[in-house]
Protein 1
Amino acid sequence: MNTVSEKKIPLLDLQAQHKQIREEVLAEIVRVVDAQKFILGEDVKQLEAEIASYSGTKHAIGCASGSDALMLALMALDIHAGDEVLTTPYTFFATAGAISRVGAVPVFVDVEEDTFNLDVSLMESVLAAHPKVRAIIPVHLFGGCADMDPIMKMANEHGIMVIEDAAQSIGSEYKGRRAGSIGQIGALSFFPSKNLGGYGDGGIMTTDDAALAEKLMALRVHGRTGKYFHQWIGVNSRLDALQAAVLRVKLRYLDGWTAGRERNAAHYRRQMAKLRIPVIPAQPAAYQTRHVYNQFVIRCKQRDGLQAHLKKQGIGSEVYYPLPLHLQPCYADLGHKAGDFPVSERLAGESLALPIHSELAGEDIDLICESIGAFYA
Ligand SMILES: Cc1ncc(COP(=O)(O)O)c(C=O)c1O
């Protein structure tokens, strides 16, 4: 089977995307460099207004990364040592890392087999057993929203806050509402591999709450509310004008790129049905009214063998995530063991992300699926 050996298909092809926008982006970079204003400023303000409008929130506050967006959100809600925060063990490390950075403790709840997101049916008993939980961080993993209505209902009943980890899901919708617009604060990432990726690190926080927006704006500049006047102890986590200028160009293309991802996902689903390989989600859940496919993930037997086979064929793939957070060495003190979150552990052993970027051609997907078929033949 050497159908694809001459053609390399990377997991993500940022070069192909860059070619479409190179001239526009370079003009913006020259403009910002000539202005010599690099930190926050007008470009950041304009991006913030545009992201707020795109996400359906009243405010958006730029910062240095998605990880910082989560941490600043926790700081703004005054989550600190002695508090617990409920989240999923099946996510990128930053979700739990942010909780620990503010001195709080993550309390994990397993995910659903068919969405990778928090299993809301398990949450009530965990909340009852953990009265110190002061916030929930649902993660909208891979571009599909978690089931927010029951999460918000439980949070309201328990008087606790919700921070949406929307790092992977800009523009994703839950019953028509955009990711980041449902909880008290949303945290988005502009890491280059995200659907709206900068030319370096960046992040943003979304909220409808004017007082929280003001606090977040202060916390990203050392808690400063006036010249050399510090209302809170914050951090240095600012978004660069260069990143904002690049992101503003890319934002204009985002819906077109998302449509490409949706088209590719539909193409994959038809091919995977023929191969009888499960896709997660098989179809977006009814409440996931817009899935933005930051990743397209299949569930497969002999996963590592398949990945090695694809690599030999020049096809990129990735395991998101091989070790759930409750089993990470840095969380050994939480006292978890293998078997505590069985769905997360199973998914960690069986899931594989395939190329899904909008520049991927239908024939590339056919080659990938042919190669997968050959592995199992
Ligand atoms: C689910 C999730 N949360 C948080 C982050 C952190 O974002 P960043 O890499 O911008 O710090 C990421 C991105 O990698 C992510 O995927």
Protein 2
Amino acid sequence: MLKIINTADGSNSLYNDIINESYHSVNGAIQESQHVFINAGLSQFSKKEISIFEVGFGTGLNALLSYIFAENNSKKIIYNSIELFPLKRELYAQLNYANILGQNYSHIYLKINESQWNTNINISDYFSLNKIHDDIRTVELSGKYDLVYFDAFSPQVEPELWTYEIFEKLYSSMNMNSIFVTYCAKGDVRRNLQKAGFNVERIPGPAGKREMLRALKATSFKL
Ligand SMILES: C[S@@+](CC[C@H](N)C(=O)[O-])C[C@H]1O[C@@H](n2cnc3c(N)ncnc32)[C@H](O)[C@@H]1O
């Protein structure tokens, strides 16, 4: 059902043959995550402590890239990520992200994946992790987040996750002057985000995609 694939930048992803969709862009898993979530999201903040909520922990690639960003930039990151279907060790342990990003990250990548669910874990002084084993459709969010990584499967596959109701729930759990980023640029998604209160912009997408969406909970695009 899940098989490991190679993407164009040499990094692996997973392909789910039931829904016919991969976890990342086939044009490059690392390049997509870096472009959409780190460059368009995390790197936009000037403050020292950033609270993140991710929809779809998956392989933990976004978590690893955020950890690397935190360490390299001396930023404290409080990383919360929800996942309904955690991966088995036999899958994530085979993925080549640490080979590409630097072998010294292989133990961190395993630590991120192996850390207990529904518990706050200090991965390092700069990175704390809470993986939530739950369903984004029904979970009650209690945090106040600066940044949301919306990394669900596409609206074609899981339309029930790209709704006004879910975006409104996320909007309510975000601080003022916070950012929501997603790889998707569909018009329906943009309109649902706007209805939920976000100020939405289309910005250049990662390799292979013209555009992506960035949405602000703020009165202007000044951060
Ligand atoms: C595109 S993949 C995420 C990729 C991930 N961010 C990564 O870096 O590997 C989408 C993820 O959302 C998860 N998911 C699907 N439905 C969900 C739901 N209702 N609630 C929470 N997670 C869900 C899937 O199991 C999958 O891991």
